[in-house]
């Protein structure tokens, strides 16, 4: 281990004090997507979550998930490589294989999916503090690069604070907090709790490098999150997958960069994948990214959706181009040839919501957030109704408190 390994604040300074972070996502934040996201404003990126034991022991797994261009100084920095693990020795062995191609190694303590429960990693280690401490400390004591960690919160904020302190004490140099419970996933995702993230930020040492994750739909939400929480940076996962322009906070008025046309972004991404044939992970992930980028577009053009469904990682680039990329460009090109396109292509802000931001109406030919429907109700409407109920309950309680106070004062006056 090098004697000059950087602490958290030193590392943060060295990599340019990044404020917009591409989250680690299983099979989704691979090399090509990281390159694209950086072009659209991301200033730090994490790899997909990698399985430490498999990475350490399986050459095939490493070939499928890692190549010489990952962490390349000209293409892919700054970069944090994330592993899931429950064995300190396998974790250290895996981390040593990549420490020369990254700026830090991260321990995933946030994955809430069933595969994490089955494999006993991610958020399903949240109750095993001794093991978590040992995992982080093993990396901190033996790697040439710093170790970081990404966590979820407990229902109790005091317990969450003690949990965060333990993670930092073990040696984590950056702390990223996803403001959702382990149970908040899929249809139960709901809003991330910025209040508990702020509570952690306010009660941890001032020099802690602190990232917030959750509730980023639009570029302006990044600044709103930083202001509300006081964090060093904001991370986006799903928001970025459907619209990489979510990171373009420096050009927030330029819709071509903040809500790019799906045809232009798809072409850009496709050309990046073609340019890095070494990255098998990027080739495998391409179909999923096509579906997400085109999510608002495909219901209007089901023929193209059918073509994407036929594709796989072995489909030639020529077929992808002729059957999907070029047809999308043709459709959107025809839309923009219409005489009234300037009126049709407007992005309209909705009214301010109870959670502090607002929703936008965006034409289907532009990248935009995805609201997952539950029982036929999309997340934006479901969240609004929930907050309206909570606000009404608070107002009713406040009125009762005032009434009780008046009655008490009246009784005192008559004594």
TrEMBL record:
Residues 386-415 are annotated as: Disordered. Belongs to the Dus family. Dus1 subfamily. One of its GO terms (molecular function) is tRNA dihydrouridine synthase activity. Its cofactor is FMN. PANTHER family: TRNA-DIHYDROURIDINE SYNTHASE, TRNA-DIHYDROURIDINE(16_17) SYNTHASE [NAD(P)(+)]-LIKE. Gene3D superfamilies: Aldolase class I (3.20.20.70). Keywords: Flavoprotein, FMN, mRNA processing, NAD, NADP, Oxidoreductase, tRNA processing. Coiled coil: none annotated. It comes from the Eukaryota. It is an enzyme of class 1 (oxidoreductase). It comes from Maudiozyma saulgeensis. It catalyses: 5,6-dihydrouridine(16) in tRNA + NADP(+) = uridine(16) in tRNA + NADPH + H(+); 5,6-dihydrouridine(16) in tRNA + NAD(+) = uridine(16) in tRNA + NADH + H(+); 5,6-dihydrouridine(17) in tRNA + NAD(+) = uridine(17) in tRNA + NADH + H(+); a 5,6-dihydrouridine in mRNA + NADP(+) = a uridine in mRNA + NADPH + H(+). This is tRNA-dihydrouridine(16/17) synthase [NAD(P)(+)]. CDD domains: DUS_like_FMN. GO terms for biological process: mRNA processing. Its EC number is 1.3.1.88. Residues 386-406 have a biased composition (Basic and acidic residues). InterPro entries: Aldolase_TIM (IPR013785), DUS-like_FMN-bd (IPR035587), tRNA_hU_synthase_CS (IPR018517). Residues 21-334 form the DUS-like FMN-binding domain.
């Amino acid at each position: 281990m090098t004697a000059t390994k950087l602490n958290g604040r030193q590392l943060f300074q060295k990599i340019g004090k990044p404020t917009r972070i591409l989250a680690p996502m299983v099979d989704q934040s691979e090399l090509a997507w990281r390159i694209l996201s950086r072009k659209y404003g991301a200033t730090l990126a994490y790899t997909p979550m990698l399985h430490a034991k498999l990475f350490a022991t399986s050459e095939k797994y490493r070939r499928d998930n890692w190549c010489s261009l990952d962490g390349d100084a000209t293409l892919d920095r700054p970069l944090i490589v994330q592993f899931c693990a429950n064995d300190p020795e396998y974790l250290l062995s895996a981390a040593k294989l990549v420490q020369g191609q990254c700026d830090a190694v991260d321990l995933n303590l946030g994955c809430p999916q069933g595969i994490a429960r089955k494999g006993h990693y991610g958020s399903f280690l949240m109750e095993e503090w001794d093991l978590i401490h040992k995992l982080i400390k093993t990396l901190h004591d033996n790697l040439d690069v710093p170790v970081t960690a990404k966590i979820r919160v407990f229902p109790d904020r005091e317990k969450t604070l003690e949990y965060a302190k333990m993670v930092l004490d073990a040696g984590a140099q950056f702390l990223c907090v996803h403001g959702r419970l382990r149970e908040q996933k899929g249809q139960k995702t709901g809003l991330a709790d910025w209040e508990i993230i702020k509570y952690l930020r306010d009660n941890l040492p001032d020099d802690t490098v602190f990232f917030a994750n959750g509730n980023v739909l639009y570029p302006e939400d990044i600044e709103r999150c930083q202001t509300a929480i006081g964090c060093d940076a904001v991370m986006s996962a799903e928001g970025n997958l459907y619209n990489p322009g979510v990171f373009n906070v420096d050009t927030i008025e330029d819709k071509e960069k903040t809500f790019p046309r799906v045809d232009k972004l798809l072409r850009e991404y496709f050309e990046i994948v073609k340019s890095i044939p070494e990255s098998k992970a990027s080739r495998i992930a391409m179909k999923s990214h096509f579906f997400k980028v085109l999510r608002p577009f495909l219901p209007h053009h089901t023929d193209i959706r059918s073509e994407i469904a036929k594709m796989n990682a072995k489909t030639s680039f020529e077929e992808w181009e002729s059957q999907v990329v070029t047809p999308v460009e043709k459709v959107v090109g025809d839309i923009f040839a219409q005489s009234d396109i300037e009126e049709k292509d407007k992005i309209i802000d909705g009214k301010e919501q109870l959670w502090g931001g607002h929703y936008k109406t965006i034409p289907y030919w532009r990248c935009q957030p995805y609201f997952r429907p539950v029982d036929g109700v999309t997340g934006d409407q479901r969240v609004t109704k929930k907050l309206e109920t909570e606000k009404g309950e608070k107002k009713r309680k406040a009125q009762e408190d005032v009434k009780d106070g008046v009655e008490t004062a009246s009784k005192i006056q008559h004594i």
